Amino acid sequence: MPQLHARGVELVVELLDASEHFESFPPDQIKKLLRETSFVLGQLLIRDIPASPGEAAAD
């Protein structure tokens, strides 16, 4: 999962850059950036699903 974290960090930098230079980004590049961001955030959320109460008691 370190690769996922590293890609998340890269996306934060890309999003900050895009927000500062929004007018110079072509629409297809913005669309690609948003899709990849949603994919990476989704993967991070899957990884971060809290344990159910029954599972937490078993630990």
Key features of this structure:
single chain, 59 residues, mainly alpha
Structure explained in plain terms:
- There is one protein chain.
- This protein is mainly alpha-helical and 59 residues long.
- The chain has a domain at 1-6 and 24-47.
- 78% of the residues lie in helices and 0% in strands.
- The chain is built from three helices and no strands.
- It has helices spanning 2-20, 27-47, 53-58.
- Helix 1 runs antiparallel to helix 2 (27-47).
- The radius of gyration is 16 Å and the shape is elongated.
- The two termini are 22 Å apart.
Question: What is this structure, in a nutshell?
Answer:
Helix content is 78%, strand content 0%.
Gap between N and C termini: 22 Å
Give the H and E element order.
HHH
Shape estimate: elongated
Helix percentage range: over 70%
Please state the CA-atom Rg, rounded to the nearest Å. Answer: 16 Å
The multimeric state of the shown protein is single chain
Q: Kindly state the mean pLDDT as a whole number?
A: 86
Layout of SSEs?
Blueprint: H1 2-20, H2 27-47, H3 53-58
Helix pairs in contact: 1-2
